[in-house]
Amino acid sequence: MSENTEAQEPAEKAAEGDCCGVSSCRADTEQSLDPAVTVIEARTNAGCGCVSDQDGATDLPVVVIGAGPVGLAAAAHLAERGLDFVVLEAGDKVGATVSEWGHVRLFSPWRYDTDAAARRLLEPTGWKLPDQDALPTGAELVRDYLVPLAEVPELAGRIRTGTRVVAVARQGVDVTRTVGRDEHPLLVRTVGPDGAVADLAARAVIDASGTWGRGNPLGHSGLPAPGEEQAAPYLTGPLPDVLGRDRERFAGRHTLVVGMGHSAANTLLALAELAKTSPGTRITWAVRGSSVARLYGGGDADGLPARGALGTRLKAAVEGGEIELVRSFTVTGFTSPDEGPAAGPVQVTGVTLDGERVVEADTVVAATGFRPDLEMLREIRVELDPATEAPVRLAPMIGPNFHSCGTVPPHGERDLAHPETGFYLVGMKSYGRAPTFLMATGYEQVRSVVAALAGDRAAADAVELDLPETGVCSTTLVTDDQLPGASADSGCGTSCGTEPAEVTVASDEAEGGSCCGTSTRQPVTIGVGAPAGLGFATGRVHGYSGDAERGDD
After folding, report:
1. CB 368 within 8 A of CB 216
2. CB distance 238 to 215 below 8 Å
3. Can you give the pTM of this predicted structure?
4. Where does 173-330 have alpha helices with state H?
5. C-beta separation of 430 from 375 below 8 A
6. What's residue 305's pLDDT?
């Protein structure tokens, strides 16, 4: 080979596709096209990773962690692209987490609750979308969508239930090893139904395991309150089945609900309903903030009527005396009887503006949000925002200090990529500690990620969200429960004070005073490049944990 030919070879390879910012996609010969950055940095900056070009990697499956709505949507897109994959689910059935809150009705109708690729796989089997204007419960979402989806020929046999992922790593190297790192496939360590440990090699890993079951503590500063661990028998998760499975635990008893999100609202309203037929049922609602205007929301102007009605009903229940609201309550400790719940209530101590207060309760509902399981990711290189624990490029789009209007900027594979080639956090887990997640956002995330894994860069970059206007920031609806000093003509303070995403309002002109665009019930399309109609669905919005006061509480 001549000297001239050797000099031209890297340039020719780059011209053939730029190979994601490196001169070669072969791990033993690749070099960054920019000598100032490493190979991994070049791949990450290019939003790719040459996953499909790793030597031998194409013989390995893509591993999807979690068989919930987003995980199965990822499987549907992988099937459509003809990529080998396996789905690992810790529960004993698909949608196991959703089934735990199966008694809760979603805010959004069926037409927003399914993924496009999933529908394309389901329709040839004779499946039909239920009444598109009906609001399904979590149980109906599992029964009428997730279970049939898992049974289509393209997915059947590729889903392993009862298989918990305990770690993700690089096969043969730990997180400190850099040289030749991408020569090694990803490794997923699992524990099966029989307790047996098994390792699975993967060309890529899509972690859609969510955050359910890893609740934020009830204490302040992000830490458990003294005595909180000992009070565990008194505590429940954010969405107990008050009127069904868990009725006996609440009927005729005193319940303290802590949190300021839609999960708290659902539980509070269920308790108020229970109290109508069960004498002695008492309800106390404790929030850290001095205002609950954000949760009361936009009422009739909410783009999702069921969500607007939730806030309206909750406000009426508080004002009617069915629910005792304790504002500015910061939990500082728990005192439990030595003999356990049978001996009496737990004492929950908190600091308020008027001094210390003790609430005695038979049950405490912890609706203070979730945090992701990062321990399982200690041996791979993830780049997370230190505040939200979300991918660093995604975090500014979802940060709860600035985003509470329901309009989520479009984001895809480039925003979800980590320094660890081929690893992605998607769905609720990708939001870290941010309290708001939209199911349709997860569907668009996995569509983009799978397109990138298939080498379709154009499709991966064409991201779009199709969202109805929330109305929660309407100045005409949220003015009677403001924080002291809040402007009467702002409605949501600084919660919308961010760089606006590209927004197209599907009406002749925007009306009303919403800081999110319009207070009328209009669809809002955000994004570029992808077909419209990708849909919107509610996620689970939970209260905050970790600070004494927030500007929009």
Report:
1. yes
2. yes
3. 0.74
4. 247-250, 262-275, 293-296, 305-319
5. no
6. 52
